């Protein structure tokens, strides 16, 4: 299976369900993030504490990112395994695993943000090593803490690939956001129009990024299980 090709095919084939998931789950998180950030930026402009604003922006962005990946991972997994009603199972997975991943994400994101703001490199390494945890939670049906060892092993083995995927996703998001921004400002300079456009683009783009990581995680997890089975038979 080529994860990139499979992701593009899956996204185009299930675009309606994916956008529904994104509108119901991703959009509210984006609204909360932007409203909170605007308020904090206002306070930072008054007090001069811009570093607090930067920390909170990074913290909330990564925190929400960890949580909202769950339903998309389940949706893809249900389809790969031929299960019925994948959309319903996606919402159920979000309800079942969302709070546990949220608690894990608080600790994880705090460590990542602190490492990035203080030393940069350690924070980025932590980000990459445990980034696959939410996907493994869905695939293995375990708590985030029980998936840490597997996430760490996969993070170390596929460190460069994970970094490449994150950079690719960032470049795609940046390019599409830039195109959308220029397109809107060519018509109007209204802040509301620009804000709405950026939100809409994120709602459309995020499902593909989540699908891409799910496909790669599924492939790597399957390969890992095959190796473990062979070693068990040889032992």
How are the elements arranged and paired?
Blueprint lengths: L2 H11 L1 H33 L2 H31 L5 H33 L2 H9 L3 H8 L7 H10 L1 H29 L3 H44 L1
Q: Can you walk me through this structure?
A:
With 235 residues, this protein is mostly helical. It has one domain (3-224). The chain is built from nine helices and no strands. It is globular. The two termini are 29 Å apart. The relative contact order is 0.13.
Key attributes of the depicted protein:
transmembrane, single chain, 9 helices, mainly alpha, 235 residues, transmembrane helix, DUF975 family protein
Task: Please give a quick description of this structure.
This protein is mainly alpha-helical and 235 residues long. The protein is built from nine helices and no strands. The protein has one domain.
Average pLDDT confidence is 86
Biggest sheet features: none
**Domain tally:** 1
The strand count comes to 0
Global outline: globular
Percentage of residues in strands: under 5%
Identify low-pLDDT runs.
Answer: none
Work out the radius of gyration. 19 Å
Tell me the span between the first and last alpha carbons: 29 Å
Helix fraction by DSSP (H/I, runs of at least 4): over 70%
**Class based on secondary structure composition and strand pairing:** mainly alpha
**N-to-C series of helices and strands:** HHHHHHHHH
How many distinct helices?
9
């Amino acid at each position: 299976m080529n994860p990139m090709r499979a992701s593009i095919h899956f996204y185009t084939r299930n675009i309606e369900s994916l956008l529904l998931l994104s509108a119901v789950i991703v959009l509210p998180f984006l609204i909360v993030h932007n409203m909170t950030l605007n308020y904090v930026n206002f306070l930072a402009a008054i007090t001069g504490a811009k570093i607090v604003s930067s920390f909170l922006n990074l913290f909330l962005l990564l925190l929400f990112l960890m949580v909202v990946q769950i339903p998309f991972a389940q949706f893809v997994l249900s389809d790969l395994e031929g299960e019925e009603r994948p959309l319903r199972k996606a919402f159920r997975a979000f309800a079942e695993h969302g709070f546990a991943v949220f608690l894990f994400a608080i600790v994880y994101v705090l460590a990542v943000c602190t490492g990035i703001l203080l030393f940069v490199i350690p924070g980025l390494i932590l980000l990459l090593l445990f980034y696959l945890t939410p996907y493994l939670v869905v695939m293995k049906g375990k708590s985030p803490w029980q998936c840490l060892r597997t996430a760490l092993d996969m993070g170390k083995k596929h460190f460069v690939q994970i970094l490449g995927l994150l950079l690719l996703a960032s470049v795609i998001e940046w390019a599409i956001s830039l195109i959308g921004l220029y397109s809107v400002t060519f018509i109007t300079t209204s802040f509301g129009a620009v804000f709405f456009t950026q939100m809409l683009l994120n709602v459309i783009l995020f499902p593909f990024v989540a699908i891409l990581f799910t496909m790669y995680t599924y492939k790597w997890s399957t390969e890992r299980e095959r190796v473990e089975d062979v070693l068990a038979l040889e032992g």
